[in-house]
Amino acid sequence: MSTSGAEAAAAPAAAAERPLVVQSDGTILLEVSSPSYERARDLLSGFAALEKSPEYVHTYRLTPLSLWNAAAVGVDHEHVARGLASLSRYPVPPLVLAFVREQLARYGRLRLVPSGDERLALTSDDPTLLSELGADDRLEGLLAGRGADGFAVEPRNRGALKQALVRIGYPVEDLCGYVDGAPLDVALRGTDRTGTAFALRPYQEAAVEAFLAGGGPRGGAGVVVLPCGAGKTVVGLGVMSRVRARSLVLTTSTVAVRQWIEEILDKTGIPAHAVGEYTGERKETRPVTVTTYQMLTHRPSKEGDFPHLDLMRDAGWGLIVYDEVHLLPAPVFRATAEIQARRRLGLTATLVREDGREEDVFALIGPKRFEVPWKRLEGEGFIAEAHCTEVRVDLPPERRVEYALADRRRRFRIAAENPAKRGLVEEILAAHPREPALVIGQYLDQLDAIARGLGLPLLTGKTPSGERERLYAAFRRGEERVLVVSKVANFAVDLPDASLAIQVSGTFGSRQEEAQRLGRILRPKSRPSRFFTLVSRDTVEQEFARKRQLFLVEQGYRYRIADVAGAAG
After folding, report:
1. Pick from 5, 191, 200, 386: CA 20 to 30 A from residue 452's CA?
2. DSSP symbols for 96-139
3. What is the H or E stretch that residue 183 is in?
């Protein structure tokens, strides 16, 4: 079972302390002021999705996908029913318990298993269900005829069938196993290259074991969810050391590619000549190859093919690692559907996808195999303590008129680019003069104005990778205390000393982006980190900010709301 919520289904609290109201439509209300709030939050995080988080009552929802992910890590009906009963102020509606039982039972009700004729077989203990699926036109062309063991399935249709079954509402458990790939001797070092002792942390070991235990013989498919700064890369290296095969790593940028390569060389015995960078600058295909999603989805013209996607189809890979798997682009989804015989490890801080394709991650990469609540790792000292503050600032009068006359999308940008935020950035930086800081935003004109006005270096997507790496290195050495960065710094930027982040604008209500930006300052350190979000008061930006915060609230973070006066503390 995932460690999330495992302790929450303990002895019932007194009725007055029970913070949950479970409703027959599958929504669950959680009272924030209750003494049992944290216990209930940890319980719900294991099988429900947070939808709203205003000040006093948070709203969760039971969904098929949240329950299928729970089933994949061993959560059963008794655990959910007992936990809800112990924390619910009123009796849990039987309709809800029936829905939970049904959805948990759907995971694994269908199984995809090897067949003796080099094909696969879709099997079930329920012949009626198989008959229903055989008549479903959504599976047309994916089933090759029914036999005594179930339906025959061509190996090439393995991924497409899993996608289709998830959409129908019957997630299949894939027990067909995986090809070994070309062998590669991978061993973790006992020390890194500086001589510092190195070993996987207990939760990283547990994540590796959970991945290897799920997905058929010798494991091989699924997602590990850990906060930024908790060492997801190290989990990937741990899996490599157990699979011991040629490995392809897909990540978000050239900077991230080079950081992966540095970690591989630092923490494993793989020699440098066996590790390749496959980017716009280099095209090295080696036993361990690291590339970007942008590289794989590059094509010379809109109508042309994706020439670099063939890298994924190389028959020698025994493991493919999808870093920041929640960002997987559509062409990579399609290629992944074709290579279901390869072991697939997804790494992410959040399973949230703003495009709604979480089901495709579940079907094609695999279900969630392991997750630890962020606050638990904070309490154990593995990530930094973080204090989150939303600072509300008025729009200047002249911008108020423009705002009032604009459409909703334009209103968001006017509010996000509020010029009053620049002075607030300066005030916060002055209040924390020794803190290595990142000023993060969405809009380049806004960031350029802040950088110029305060005399700070600016990094955007247009900054050459060499200059980016130079500035990141200067920041790590303490030669630059503050960097102004666009969304290029959302992912896989290794700035361990950063302890102050000021978010001046974001991508509408992106929960994943909020989590990633907080993650820039979560590397463990002796002092708390501070995360400030600057929001224009009484605008649509304030509404979107609340949505952006949903995932972090679910993880146990609370945002202090501050007005401009005294906000910098």
Report:
1. 386
2. HHHHHHHHHHHTTTEEEEE-TTSSEEEEES-HHHHHHHHT-GGG
3. none
pLDDT bucket at 382, cuts 50 / 70 / 90: very high
CA distance 135 to 224: 36
- For the chain, give every domain's residue range: 15-106, 110-170, 202-372, 380-563
List Cβ neighbours of 164 (8 Å cut-off, separation of 6 or more). 138, 139, 142
Specify the fold of 202-372: Rossmann fold (3.40.50)
- Total count of residues recorded for the chain: 569
Asked whether the beta carbons of 66 and 49 are under 8 A apart, the reply is yes
Kindly state the average pLDDT of the residues 473-481: 91
CA distance 341 to 215: 11
pLDDT digits 0-9 by tens, 126-171: 999 999 999 999 999 999 888 877 999 999 999 999 999 999 999 9
Which tokens sit at 76?
Answer: 């059963």
Whether the per-residue pLDDT at 16 is higher than 70: the answer is no
**Which one, of 275, 310, 256, lies nearest residue 490 by Cα?**
256
Residue 362 neighbours by CB distance under 10 Å: 24
Q: Which residue has the tokens 């009906």?
A: 77
* pLDDT band, very low/low/confident/very high, at 402 (cuts 50, 70, 90): very high
Domain pair 202-372 / 380-563, same fold: yes
Contacts of 22 (CB under 8 A, 6+ apart): 28, 84, 88, 90, 92, 93, 96
What amino acid is encoded at 463 in this protein?
A: T
Which 8-state DSSP code applies to residue 15? Answer: G
- Mean pLDDT along residues 342-346: 94
Q: In this structure, are residues 42 and 373 in contact, taking their beta carbons and an 8 Å threshold? A: yes
Q: What are the tens digits of pLDDT across the range 532-562?
A: 999 999 999 998 888 888 888 878 788 898 8
Enter the tokens of residue 413: 């940008």
Which overall architecture, per CATH, does domain 380-563 show? 3-Layer(aba) Sandwich (3.40)
Per residue in 500-531, pLDDT (tens digit) is 999 999 887 688 888 888 888 998 888 899 99
Whether 100 contacts 81, CB under 8 Å: yes
